[in-house]
Amino acid sequence: MKGAVKALERNLMKGNEALAEAAIRAGCKCFFGYPITPQTELAAYMAKRMNKAGGVFLQAESEIAAINMVLGAASTGVRAMTSSSSPGLSLKSEGISYIAGSDVPAVIINVQRGGPGLGGIQPSQADYWQATKALGHGDFHLLVFAPASVQEMVDMVVRAFDKADEYRMPAMILADGLLGQMMEPVSFPEIKANCVDKSSWAADGHKGKRAHHIINSLYLKPDELEKSVSDRFARYDVIKSKETDAELYLTEDCDILLCAFGATARVVKSAVNEARAQGIKAGLFRPKTLWPFPVKEINEAAKSAKKLLSVEMSMGQMIDDIKLAINCSKPVEFYGRTGGVIPTPAEVLAEIKKVGGAE
Amino acid sequence: MATTEILLAGFGGQGVLFAGKILAYCGLMDNKELSWLPSYGPEMRGGTANCSVCISDEPIGSPLVLTPDILIAMNQPSFDKFVNDVKPGGKVFYDSTLIENECTRTDIEIYAVPSSQLADDNELKGGSNIVLLGKVFKETELFNVDVFKKAIEKIVPPAKAQLITNNFKAFELGMNA
Amino acid sequence: MSVVFERPKSLLDVTFHYCPGCTHGIVHRLVAEVMDEMGIEGDTIGVCPVGCSVMAYDYFGCDMIEAPHGRAPAVATGVKRTNPDKFVFTYQGDGDLAAIGTAETVHVATRGENIVVIFINNTIYGMTGGQMAPTTLPGQVTQTTPFGRDPQLAGYPVRVCEMLSTLTGTAYAHRVAVDSVPHIRDAKKAIRKAFETQKAKKGFSIIEVLSTCPTNWGLTPTEALKRLQDEMIPYYPLGVYKDTTSEEGEK
Prior knowledge:
The complex is a heterotrimer of chains A (about 350), B (about 180) and C (about 250). Chain B is of the alpha/beta class and about 180 residues long.
């Protein structure tokens, strides 16, 4: 593809722009969005590039319309994406539930900001519960990827499209304002988009050669609905066994295991390094998939730890999954900042000393 | 090299983010690890703007600069707000055309550069930010001068070659200030 | 023996769930006949609403997508933008199109999206059991206007064709009815013209079809047709509200 940036070359890009460029390279053929800070650069980049790349960019009249445009396009078998920030995701939740219930693949970006309500525009991770537990009504999940760098945003967008297609389900990149706004060196690998054959279900016109395809989430008979949900959950079991991913950093001998994802994990890594320099055996567990949560990986990371400390840009949401994952076998402490405040390495180090290192 | 944390701050429109971008591109051209993080939101539309730049041989942890090694201040409120956050041994570069230095710290080095005046006198309107960068390059070991040139040529599109020349001129002024 | 009347090929041989006397069946048939006559069933993607026609995906032979309540125009936009050579239509009721989906309706029209919207106006919410719709007439008794719709309390009905005809993006807006044979013939012609408009890439078409709901109106099918004639048509006059299809250079 003739791109705005050359493959493999080290480029400097904002996270939001890198997400867009990576999506186009991954074969995303349409983007439907609505302006909201701090993700707007993504839509602006798409507006500039999508037509040249042979795709569709359209600014929708609302977040609700945007996600439903994604539903329409993706129903025909086309790779489709939308992006927003926290308040916008609440509006998209209806459409996401339909997308999940209709077994349609799609990629959704959330560049999180502080909430609830209109909240603020600074970075936050307070949509963890929404993304992993309840992004819409009904029994369903999304694949949720949590990048911690601009490069990882690129890699995860490609993976999100591939996995969404493979499992016929929505996938989310759960980023935040810090990752979206920051520039870092990034390179785009030659992406070979996995071409999944969608001809068995896509509603793209039957040409008189097959029975009509129906994209639908309505099942009025309870036993039929139960079966459709159960079938989907059987697929979720496969995903849980195959698709978890996490980074384990200095965990082999750690006394205290810090747990953090996304931008917060960068801060925590700095704190872990400083703690090690001061003789405290700290380690970091960083989930890269938030759903499915890396249960096996955290148990491996926590093997030698006496205590765990979850650090989040929220009042404590991932901590629930941590406790469940280790079956509350060890104490799990929490440190967090919220409302758009980014914790500092010094704060986290102080917390490490307070909860773990001071005995 | 350990991580060098740089904070640039001033009014919106003074080229604070652009100067930061040049430093980031210098890191890119010099094969360093780096991050560039702007303040965003209402402050982009007037008011104060600042950006954090980290340059390192190691992967960057937190990209948010709270205690800079280098502060580049382009207006009085930014100078007053951030000068006490500079690490001991750190360096401060400020536009002495617009800023009065009432800082009493002795554990940092403070460089006064009449960058607005210099830019205006040389018909380089809006070049104050680059003049300050010239001084930063001269007084720190951050990058070689040719890295700056490579970075500018990477950022400025060839169609606007005149801007390249102007940026070099402003940079020279700062080097000699 | 020659066949003089049969089920259109684009309408599947399944039993409708619609109530006796409901005019959805007529409108379904007209849309299917148009698809047959134009030979486009295999190149058409239909979008169903939420409401009585939610299960139209089981009845039309073309590929079908079931949209969230009110969002059919947005879903259709996603389909059409990525498949510009396919025919795309939505089939929506009054609650879906003119209440919860008003924003989608207005914007799909103002964008001049090259699709066809079939709009069933029967002045009531049928699927949920007869509540007030945005098109419920003043004085009309429904479950949620038990004393008759009082405009002071519940506002006035929305005249959709009139509203959408003010938008530059609308190419063709036509209100028809299915209460009599001549009107049904007119409705068929209008639906055909809407699909031809899409074929010629001339932009957005809406065909508003005045329809009946005997069950929720509490009337027999023939009484319902009479109400349509006596009460609805005076409030919602039939006719072409906008037609730029013959103009040069119009989208």
